[in-house]
Specification:
Strand content: under 5%
Number of helices: 8
Structural class: mainly alpha
Number of strands: 3
Order of helices and strands: HHHEEEHHHHH
């Protein structure tokens, strides 16, 4: 009788089959991990793109909220600072810029009244010392410091008179002068010029 021929290395074949199964499972697991990783990467990229878009949109909105006066020699950085000061004081940016033009022609180093009135809004240390201390104005030729003090003064007059023309007259000539003008039913040429110019800025000088 012939003995049945037993395949040589049968155990090896089983081991190879088992190893192949493990390799296939490993490959499948690897592929699944790769797919998951790719999905995570795509999600992260999409998130970054969305974030970048949102940041860009926020930046655009931030840029659009500012207004600049055409022809004004003050830098946009300084005008943005003035814009924020006006926002904090609940004052019209165009009105304040018009007032600044009237007082100093937008010249931070403008000095008048025998050296007593200084800077953009012609702050007088003699009369406005308390305002300067409150707003941190140590150098009235500094445009931002000067406008902080001037805006605070204008805001106080607004709180007193509740009318832009009357507040402007008080800013220019003091409360006693404004009271006389109000009692007489008059508006000064100074106040009228500032109001007309501010209206023109709002119409023409946009964002």
């Amino acid at each position: 009788m012939h003995k049945k021929h037993k395949p040589r290395h049968a155990g090896t074949a089983v081991m190879l089959a088992a190893a192949l199964s493990v390799i296939l499972l490993t490959n499948q697991d690897r592929d699944e991990k790769i797919i998951c990783l790719e999905a995570e990467i795509q999600q992260a990229v999409a998130g970054m793109a969305t974030q970048t878009y949102q940041e860009a949109l926020a930046g655009e909105k931030q840029a659009l909220q500012y207004r600049y006066i055409k022809g004004c020699p003050l830098s946009q950085k300084v005008q943005r600072e003035i814009f924020h000061i006006c926002e904090d004081a609940a004052l019209s940016f165009e009105l304040v810029m018009s007032l600044i033009y009237e007082e100093s022609g937008w010249d931070p180093e403008c000095i008048s009244d025998n050296g007593e009135s200084v800077g953009l809004m012609q702050i007088q240390e003699k009369w406005h010392g308390e305002l300067m201390d409150k707003t941190g104005c140590t150098d009235p030729t500094d445009p931002v410091q000067n406008v902080r003090a001037g805006a605070e003064l204008l805001k106080r007059h607004f709180c007193t008179y509740q009318d832009p023309a009357w507040a402007l007259m008080a800013y220019n000539g003091g409360q006693a002068y404004a009271d006389r003008m109000v009692k007489a039913g008059k508006t000064s040429a100074y106040a009228e010029r500032i109001l007309r110019r501010a209206a023109r800025y709002e119409r023409n000088d946009g964002i």
